[in-house]
Amino acid sequence: MNLEEQLEKIKRKLMSSGFKLTSQREATVRVLLQHEADHLGAEEVFMRVKENNPEIGMATVYRTLELLADLHIVEKMNFGDGIARFDLRGDDHEHMHHHLICAVCGKLKEIKDDWLLELEQRLEREYGFTVLDHRLDFTGKYQTCTNVDCKRTRKAVS
What we know:
Blueprint: H1 3-16, H2 23-34, H3 42-52, H4 58-70, E1 74-78, E2 84-88, E3 98-102, E4 108-111, H5 117-127, E5 137-140, H6 148-157
Parallel strand pairs: 3-5
Antiparallel strand pairs: 1-2, 3-4
Helix pairs in contact: 1-2, 2-3, 3-4
């Protein structure tokens, strides 16, 4: 799906919830779509929006991000660095995708496969608990990490 198709889909979701895709919201959504793999924080989104839309204020971008999170268009996440990041939710899976996070260099990789489906079915069967959503983040170190501190830690552990 290209950027315009994704934008149209988000517009329909906003409209079905009683909201319009204003020019400010569209500018914010475009930045999220263009930088989907970057997991941008609110300030980073604002700085990128401001490049093409200097009239937009930080409060407008922040309100838009919060609205998108409330509508489950984006997921508000924290990867342990104290920054709330915004990650687009995909339609290819029922639940949020998962992440591998390097604790030293901060490299992040998304896992699109849903590894928890069997566990969810078991929770419903054994406990009568229906999982509405889940997110799984693995924190560790990549063997290929080029960060000097990461190499030093890996040598000490080996």
